[in-house]
Amino acid sequence: MKFRRLALFIIRGVRNTFKKILIIFTITGLLFVNTNAFASSIIIQKIDNENINKLIENPAFPTRIDDIDLKLYDTTNNQIPIFNNNNLADFYVDDDADPSWYNETNYKIIKEAIENASGGDIIFVYSGTYCETFRVYRPVNIYGEDKNNTIIDGENLGNVVQIIADKVCFSGFTIKRSGNKLIFENSGIEIKSNENIIYDNIITENVNGININGGSGNKIVNNIIIKNKRRFFSSGISLLNAHENIITRNEVKKNGWTGGIYLYSSNNNIINNNLVLRNMYTGISIMISSSNNITKNNIIGNGIGVQLYQSIENNVTKNNFIFNRRQSSFKIEKIEQFKNTWDQNYWNRPKLAPHPIFGSKLITIPFLEIIPIPLVKFDWHPALKPYDI
Length: 389
Description:
CATH class: Mainly Beta
Strand content: 25-35%
CATH architecture: 3 Solenoid
Helix content: under 10%
Number of helices: 2
Shape: elongated
CATH topology: Pectate Lyase C-like
Largest sheet: 12 strands, parallel
């Protein structure tokens, strides 16, 4: 008799617990939400120095990311060389040449070459340390001789390089030591324009590495963005009100509290094929943004791998999430912000069952406080092995 009563007590307890769980999932509309598989993947050509001359810019930014080819251009004939013949340059810069070398095309600082250049000109900068900050206000191509030894040192004075012209190519430099005051006005490179290419640079020791502030159609390609954490809210790459940009094949490592890649109020961007490694708080943070595609990135050893905050219709697909303290999270205030897709990601180990992504809905109780209500999304098709990225 006692055994029977005990068994009934246990059964009732399990049943009541299950009902409570079912009610929670039903209220939030989560239990049977099957996010559609995001079948499209980004196809981006490997950037090869020998073949780069053949890559021609796609004239219109696509509305979807199916079969995108990343193609580069310059300001004159819609092609861009990875500059390897300094005899073709229009202007030259050398910080320690013989005094007799300087003339109307040869300069000691980069700023002077920009001031004398015209649209489409090539400026070649020899290896050295250039202690200066400057604005690029003409559509020119600026190439450093060697990214490891061609150094632009901002000496703690605001943005090191600010690009305000469209269709600038900037490649082959180490950019370091921006100012250390206001967060988003102290970057290694700040972009306030459109359709620029930032290629093959080292960005380090700044408040922010690269900040795209209101620009669109920019391509951030093949850069090393490391240890930009001079202020609490530092980040590696930040996008503020920036749309339709491509961030690909970068190494974004050991940056500050805002994270490796940070988007705020920025839509329709592609974040693809990056190594996002050991950033202090988030690897990739998407805030109040929509329709961004985060695809085929290695997201390793960050505080949170990917975090979505009040964002909608973003796609997080085919990424490797490995050894992050927390792999993913989201916070929403409106139920429509629940419409983000997590699909076909690798979650640190093979998963046969759908992988849960835990988040919360913020509810404000009048005269009291904001209370987070737990929610769950699912990656319904988790990968069984890591992607070769």
